[in-house]
Amino acid sequence: MQLGLIGLGKMGFNMRARLREGGHDVVGYDPRPEVSDVASLADLAAALPAPRVVWVMVPSGTITDQTITELAQVLGDGDLVIDGGNSRYTEDAPHAKLLAEKGIAFIDAGVSGGIWGLNEGYGLMVGGDDADVARAMPIFDALRPPGPVEDGFVHVGPVGAGHFAKMVHNGVEYALMTAYAEGYEMLAAEDLVRDPQAVYQAWSNGTVVRSWLQQLLAKALKEDPGLNDISGYTEDSGEGRWTVEEAIRLRVPVPSIAAALFARFLSRQEDSPTMKAVAALRNQFGGHAVKRVSESG
Amino acid sequence: MQLGLIGLGKMGFNMRARLREGGHDVVGYDPRPEVSDVASLADLAAALPAPRVVWVMVPSGTITDQTITELAQVLGDGDLVIDGGNSRYTEDAPHAKLLAEKGIAFIDAGVSGGIWGLNEGYGLMVGGDDADVARAMPIFDALRPPGPVEDGFVHVGPVGAGHFAKMVHNGVEYALMTAYAEGYEMLAAEDLVRDPQAVYQAWSNGTVVRSWLQQLLAKALKEDPGLNDISGYTEDSGEGRWTVEEAIRLRVPVPSIAAALFARFLSRQEDSPTMKAVAALRNQFGGHAVKRVSESG
Amino acid sequence: MQLGLIGLGKMGFNMRARLREGGHDVVGYDPRPEVSDVASLADLAAALPAPRVVWVMVPSGTITDQTITELAQVLGDGDLVIDGGNSRYTEDAPHAKLLAEKGIAFIDAGVSGGIWGLNEGYGLMVGGDDADVARAMPIFDALRPPGPVEDGFVHVGPVGAGHFAKMVHNGVEYALMTAYAEGYEMLAAEDLVRDPQAVYQAWSNGTVVRSWLQQLLAKALKEDPGLNDISGYTEDSGEGRWTVEEAIRLRVPVPSIAAALFARFLSRQEDSPTMKAVAALRNQFGGHAVKRVSESG
Amino acid sequence: MQLGLIGLGKMGFNMRARLREGGHDVVGYDPRPEVSDVASLADLAAALPAPRVVWVMVPSGTITDQTITELAQVLGDGDLVIDGGNSRYTEDAPHAKLLAEKGIAFIDAGVSGGIWGLNEGYGLMVGGDDADVARAMPIFDALRPPGPVEDGFVHVGPVGAGHFAKMVHNGVEYALMTAYAEGYEMLAAEDLVRDPQAVYQAWSNGTVVRSWLQQLLAKALKEDPGLNDISGYTEDSGEGRWTVEEAIRLRVPVPSIAAALFARFLSRQEDSPTMKAVAALRNQFGGHAVKRVSESG
After folding, report:
1. For chain C, what is the radius of gyration of the CA atoms?
2. Distance from CA of residue D272 to its chain's centroid?
3. Measured between beta carbons, which residues in chain A are less than 8 angstroms from residue D220?
4. Which parts of the sequence belong to the 6-phosphogluconate dehydrogenase C-terminal domain (chains A, B, C, D) (predicted)?
């Protein structure tokens, strides 16, 4: 089928390629002319036969807001917008409402798979009305991995449910990564262990902990044993923060997801104010020596 | 090759079957005559041609100690003992020393895979001398999953290294399970999500969080949606506790593994003394109502 | 000075008494006629000479919103409203703006001390303009504990700063309570320790951990050794949740405050869905026995 | 009464002074002649009338072991040894046994108070037989803070109980310090807050969080606002690690104590191997940029 795809960055660019391989006729738009098929959203709308389907794959927050607001102008009754970006699920209902005023339907789609999705397919979690989801199914089928549909695609619930599930997916992802990373640090710290990489590699088959992330860590350790060239400085995207916030709203205890999130915050601090205060306290009551910044150099 | 296998419980019974399928000649011993091939460890030793290889697959701690002590009596110079149980790695060196006094070699082998190992093969992490590992390789090859040897088997280092790696494996396993479980609880708590099982199922392909544990949770949720018939009461084996203890020794921060361990402790408490004390404190300073046990019924 | 006080519950009732003891002329309003001095907010406004000072001490959220909205009607230019409740600090700026449209000034005041404040005085953290704070200082002086003003009162910053500091105070309070409670559980679990109460009592002088909460726990344990009549079920007020949410916004890692919050969530669950999922997983891969709910009775 | 005191370091030196002020006749020994009253342990034994009381105040572990072993030689039947250092409680029973073979009694005494103990008195937690504790009571009375005995001294239980209680005290102390420090970091991160020091100072009276540590943090922040000259690098003594290890043995969940311990480990790492692994993973699956160490300069 024909569809518009807005945003041809790291994710959208690959998705356009996969959709085309899947036999779809994709009109892509991006502000960078060198990758864009059309010059504007209006051109994109004009290039598609009504009723149109437009997939939005731009950074969450302001840019997604602006894009959807603009689409409400250039699209019309019977069209369908799919937000495949990492929007917070609470933004989906307002977006759906804005579009519904013009008769435009809305689906939120959580997309997982990163740079591997081009070849392996993307895990999809979508929210919206049954009829809308059914209509977009050929697109989802092209994007999702081959195999049984239920193993790589889920219609989670009404509008918002897709991004909610994707948010949880990323929260879990944070905690899984920290779990594997803690195991790596232990293996690397113990003299008995010759090569942590070999252990991670050997967990690929048969073990309880085998997973895609386990294999990626084995791969990373093969490329850079000791991870000597990688800093621990780690960004966090919104989903990890939102997961803990939503867990608080739902009164769900998420100690391991929160620990993973806080570890990222900490990784970006030159020196931890919390630990400076702890060091100051020890010095106060115990006369314990503190490391003076002024003595460091 | 010929080998003895001591302990024909949930793990050992299946391993004997897999080893025989792999063409090995296994003499199994177990105190339960209905599963045992011989009547005693002495009979087992007598049934094997020297130099013998004997795999010990009994509960860690006292029983493993007793078994290895007895093997030091009935085996002799040039024989090889492999401890495939979940012994703490610190017990390996003493066991190796005890056996070495009789000229008996020792390998520690961490074995992962649970009840699935029979058909899929067992992930193996071993510690010991190169020559000893080479000698036992045909056994490891029969037990490990098919495919490249390095994907299901690792010679981690000297005696103790195998059980150390297996201990870390289980520590990571604890944290992974908690991560997936926290995600499940969030999905189950949110009204937008129709069916958490479908989400876990859909994470099978394409997603970053895909793994064997993810698939097992999808399977468990399919068998018992809502997990209504399963109590949260969860035992912990030694490895989780040892992992945190060894992390402390190595000064490695393991917040997510520790959180997973503590969650298991908590799951086995009728009521948390910590939270009783918190409730008592709130009552003291704020006059906040507490739930009186005496009022409950 | 003369002031109005709205809300004569557990906190407000005592504050009226302390303010009157401090020589102030307090007109109290509460919907419950038996404790109220006037019949309505309009009566309260009428009973005070302009420019008026009115202290709001009602539950945070909707009721505070309604009260301040109504005060914007019955008060006027030059008056001053102080919100002494546990409002989220983000609500202060909108409240200040609403009142400013009528020329009414606003101060947010975090109040700590619980039921002990009547006699010992209340710890006060306030936000607002210097002139407004100066004007209300006689009230703050009557409410705060005797001694140096800086030891029981702080003008934290502009509007919102008082409630922010109070929120952090409560977040820290959560973590402190959990710290003491974990220590109690350890003492209670160890056979060598005859009486955890005596240990907590003995921490009153000389030790590094001495504090008011430590003394309250000693007191609680004296009243109910073993805390046998207290359930661990523990409510949480908004501040604990807000603290973690604001920490996430500020990218501040707060593992111990978050752990304390999550422990409260957990204390209110009959059975943890997270741990049910962990138990289900163990059963799936290891054939480990699970506790069936259906077998429990 | 007369007593020997071995170890005249930061703690022992002050304790000798306080004991002498309390009217006791103290013979102090230290390997540093400039502070020592006698030249050797043998001289110390000779200088005291039998039955002797000797207080050991030396670093825990090897040095305490050696000292007690030597005391078993130079002391004799009817004498009493008190270990006031930070020995692990599990070492007390062996020490008691060793001494008992010579008819020498043993008490373990946990001592809290740091450099402030000289003037304010030391919080004491002791383990041992009733008769032995009664015999040493005049010493405890001189060391403990003035006031009711039960507020600064506790006979916790049999040998080992004193050090166990002190270990828990320090574990709680770790968690309390982290709690206050997290609050500080939040206050320091929020623009609305003019001066975190003023807030900590104002918590001194009336608030729920008031404590000695709170006052010390206020003091530290007064001396160095912003803690600019203090590094977050923080040592940990044995007690924090032991507390978590013993919690594991007792199956007591201690998330906040463990979090405080792990934060100290982390504070001493140049870069976290765990977070290097997390960053490497993000790079693998998402193509997320990592900070290359090689690019840093």
Report:
1. 23
2. 27
3. 277, 280-281, 283-284
4. 162-296
User: Per-residue confidence of chain D (297 residues) as pLDDT tens digits?
Assistant: 999 999 999 899 999 999 999 999 999 999 999 999 999 999 999 999 999 999 999 999 999 999 999 999 999 999 999 999 999 999 999 999 999 999 999 999 999 988 889 999 999 999 999 999 999 999 999 999 999 999 999 999 999 999 999 999 999 999 999 999 999 999 999 999 999 999 999 999 999 999 999 999 999 999 999 999 999 999 888 999 999 999 999 999 999 999 999 999 999 998 999 999 999 999 998 777 678 777 554
The CA distance from B79 to B48, in Å, is 10
Q: Letter for the amino acid at B37? A: D
Query: Does A293 sit within 8 Å of D231, measured CB to CB?
Result: yes
Asked if residue A193 has pLDDT above 50, the reply is: yes
Question: Torsion angle, CA of B51/B53/B56/B61, rounded to 10 degrees?
Answer: 50
Residues in CB range of C67: below 8 A, 6 or more apart: C6, C7, C41, C56, C58
- Residue A9 to chain D, least CA–CA distance (Å): 12
Instruction: Outline where chain D has alpha helix (H).
Output: 10-21, 41-47, 62-74, 92-100, 117-120, 130-143, 161-189, 196-202, 212-223, 238-250, 255-267, 273-286
Q: Give burial (CB, 10 Å; 0-12/13-18/19+) of D269.
A: middle
For residue C114, give Cα distances in angstroms to B163, C51, C121, D70: 53, 30, 10, 55
Say yes or no: B142 and B171 in one domain.
Answer: no
Pick the closest to residue B236 from B269, B266, B261, B255 (CA basis). Answer: B261
CB C107 within 8 A of CB C82: yes
Tell me which chains share at least 3 CB pairs under 8 Å with chain C.
A, B, D
C231 and C84 in a common domain: no
pLDDT, one tens digit per residue, over B100-158 is: 999 999 999 999 988 889 999 999 999 999 999 999 999 999 999 999 999 999 999 99
Asked if B95 reaches chain C (Cβ–Cβ under 8 Å), the answer is: no
User: At which residue do the structure tokens 């026995």 appear?
Assistant: C289
Measuring CA to CA, how many Å separate A180 from each of A167, A184, B184, B260?
A: 20, 6, 19, 13
ipTM given for this complex: 0.95
Residue at D282 is within a domain: no
Running DSSP on this structure, what letter comes out for residue A292?
B
Q: Which range of residues forms the domain containing residue A64?
A: 2-157
User: Rounded to an integer, what distance in angstroms lies between the CA atom of residue A122 and that of residue D46?
Assistant: 83
Spatial contact of C148 and D226, defined as CB atoms under 8 Å apart: no
Interface test with A, best of B92, B122, B192, B217 (most A CBs within 10 A): B192
Strand order in the sheet with C105-112: C25-29, C2-6, C53-56, C80-83, C105-112, C123-127, C153-157
Query: Which residues of chain B neighbour C217 with C-beta distances below 8 Å?
Result: 277, 280-281, 284
CA-CA distance, B234 to B178, in Å (whole number)? Answer: 12
Closest by CA position to B243, among listed B257, B260, B262, B263: B257
Whether residue C6 is found in the same domain as residue C144:
yes
Q: How far is it, in rounded angstroms, from Cα D287 to Cα D282?
A: 7
Residue C253 contacts residue A274 (beta carbons within 8 Å): yes
Asked whether residue A287 is assigned to any structural domain, the reply reads: no
Do A65 and A30 belong together in one domain? yes
Closest in C121, C145, C179 to D175, CB measured: C179
Find out whether A226 and A255 touch, Cβ atoms under 8 Å.
Answer: no
Q: Which residues contact A231 (CB under 8 A, 6 or more apart)?
A: D271, D276, D279, D290, D291, D292, D293, D296
CATH number of the domain encompassing residue D30: 3.40.50.720
Task: Choose, from A91, A166, A239, A246, the residue flagged as catalytic.
Answer: A166
B223 catalytic? Reply is no
How many domains is chain A built from? 2
Report the percentage of chain B scoring pLDDT > 90: 93
